[in-house]
Amino acid sequence: MSTTVRAVRGAISCDADTIEAINAASLEVTKAMLTRNDLAIDDVISIFFTNTPDLVSGFPATGVRLAGFEDVPLMCASEIAVPGSMPRIIRVLMHVHSPRRRDEIKHVFLGEAKALRSDLD
Q1: Whole-Å CA distances, 25 to 76, 102, 112, 114
Q2: 86 and 112 in contact (C-beta within 8 Å)?
Q3: What kind and span of H or E run contains 117?
Q4: 17 pLDDT more than 80
Q5: Which residues pair with 95 in a beta bridge?
Q6: Mean pLDDT of 106-119
Q7: Which terminus of the chain has a lower count of CB atoms within 10 Å, N or C?
């Protein structure tokens, strides 16, 4: 079966600004993105994480790296501080090899971040 490069989006709310909460949330959303799209770590090309400016205790990539993504390029950045935006959110853009068509990719929004994309289940 042939594959192509696809982008999978995800986001999750973080319970607190602690390294433990950031690691747990980033790992939870990343694993859910893999599971819902029938992907393995070997299918992942790279992952780009952003977090809202109120999450400063750690890098979202750290928890993912410790969970088996040692050789996957990971990058983190801070979101712009938009007044009134949802607090404590980690966003994810994962590039993968997948046999799925673009319209078959399942994007994952968890916790309070579900409100960011209410059109997705």
Answers
A1: 14, 25, 12, 14
A2: yes
A3: none
A4: yes
A5: 7, 46
A6: 88
A7: N
- Stated as kind and residue range, the H or E segment containing 49 is strand 44-51
Q: How many domains does the chain have?
A: 1
Residue matched to tokens 């992952």: 47
Instruction: Work out the pLDDT band at 91, boundaries 50, 70, 90.
Output: very high
Whole-model pTM: value is: 0.94
Q: Which residues neighbour 76 within 8 Å (Cβ) at sequence distance 6 or greater? A: 48, 49, 50, 51, 59, 60, 61
Q: Which CATH number belongs to the domain containing residue 25 in this structure?
A: 3.30.1330.40
91/100 Cα distance (integer angstroms): 22
